[in-house]
Amino acid sequence: MKALVKEKAGPGLRLVDVPEPEVGPGEVKIRVLRTGICGTDLHIRKYDDWARQTLKPPIIVGHEFSGHVVEVAPGVEDISVGDLVSGEGHLVCGKCRNCMAGRRHLCRNTIGLGVNRDGAFAEYLTLPASNVWVHRVPVHPDVAAIFDPFGNAVHTALSFPLVGEDVLITGAGPIGLMAAAVATHVGARHVMITDVSDERLALAGKLGVSLALNVSRTTIGEGMCQLHLREGFDVGLEMSGNPAAMRDMIANMTHGGKIAMLGLPAEEFAVDWATIVTSMITIKGVYGREMYETWYNMSVLLEKGLDLTPVITDRFPYQDFDAAFDTAASGRTGKVILDWSEEARPGRARNEPTEAEAAPTMDRSA
């Protein structure tokens, strides 16, 4: 089968032929239809300091995917050949204190799909059945492929009650955009999202936000005036990892405000702890998804009409992976999808829909 592999230390990825994986005990085998390109994948391709410290090449990369089940190990229940599935990319030990208490997202022994174990940028992958999410309601393969980052957005956005609240989101990357869509959908009063990319802020406008603000030209305080806010934001969702964004967020929160922080800074930075203390601001770190409450929330949000399609801006056949990665790294797009279906072909216009992409619901023929 074809797979995108980090073969050795150094920049780049290669599309090579590798053996198809075999199903182990308690596992399922999946024919991949779509994959999403994540910031983690960009780090791996670049082979930066994090990748050098984390990866042990050779390894198949990628962790965001959708596909059809083609084989199920004996004893696996509630998953059938033909099911459209996504997968939780954090494989946990099941034995530590948090796992035993049902807090699997806090497992200290987590193994990452496409980081510590062969991943999803391939025609086939295997995954423990406990990590497989079966889509019981219709969902397009493109959207199913981004359930992993969608889960990050939902986990962050639903960290605190949002109904009737004024919400500030810093960072309009794909996860920030999805968090904005969630906040608007569940009943926030005002949702303001900030970034320095006009292209990404234009995408935010399609998701129903109250204000998409370019902070290279307009301050958050000026944005608050446009929304007629007098006391600051009730909830902050920090999605960028940018020190200036976090400091600006803290400075514009109401007393008793709550911040959920998903953005991962590249290094330590200072914040105004005096304001955090005297304004009694709560800051919660968020990583990954709650297993599997967040997945349930995601499916219900889509079932109740949340539309993520504006977040998906670019599609490429998997053979054009270099162009796809360059597009994702540009910082000007939404989510970039690689098509691994049998009808994927090189040279297809990057937003030209395939037959499967035109289907309104699950398409088992994709």
TrEMBL record:
Keywords: Cytoplasm, Metal-binding, NAD, Oxidoreductase, Zinc
Catalyzed reactions: L-threonine + NAD(+) = (2S)-2-amino-3-oxobutanoate + NADH + H(+)
Cofactor needs: Zn(2+)
Any one GO molecular function term: zinc ion binding
Keyword Zinc belongs to the record: yes
Biased composition (Basic and acidic residues): 342-353
InterPro entries, alphabetized: ADH-like_C, ADH-like_N, ADH_Zn_CS, ER, GroES-like_sf, L-Threonine_3-DHase, NAD(P)-bd_dom_sf, Zn_alcohol_dh
Positions of Zn(2+) 2 binding: 93, 96, 99, 107
Stretches for region Disordered: 341-366
Biological pathway: Amino-acid degradation; L-threonine degradation via oxydo-reductase pathway; glycine from L-threonine: step 1/2
Pfam families registered for this protein in UniProt: ADH_N (PF08240), ADH_zinc_N (PF00107)
Enoyl reductase (ER) domain residues: 10-338
Chain positions recorded as Zn(2+) 1 binding sites: 38, 63-64
Site label Important for catalytic activity for the proton relay mechanism but does not participate directly in the coordination of zinc atom, positions: 148
E.C. code: 1.1.1.103
Residues annotated as catalytic: 40 (charge relay system), 43 (charge relay system)
Note on how the cofactor is bound: Binds 2 Zn(2+) ions per subunit.
Residues the entry annotates as binding NAD(+): 175, 195, 200, 262-264, 286-287
Matching PROSITE patterns: ADH_ZINC
GO biological process, one term: L-threonine catabolic process to glycine
Origin superkingdom: Bacteria
Purpose of the protein: Catalyzes the NAD(+)-dependent oxidation of L-threonine to 2-amino-3-ketobutyrate.
Subunit structure: Homotetramer.
Protein's name according to its UniProt entry: L-threonine 3-dehydrogenase
Organism the protein comes from: Nonomuraea jiangxiensis
Gene field: tdh
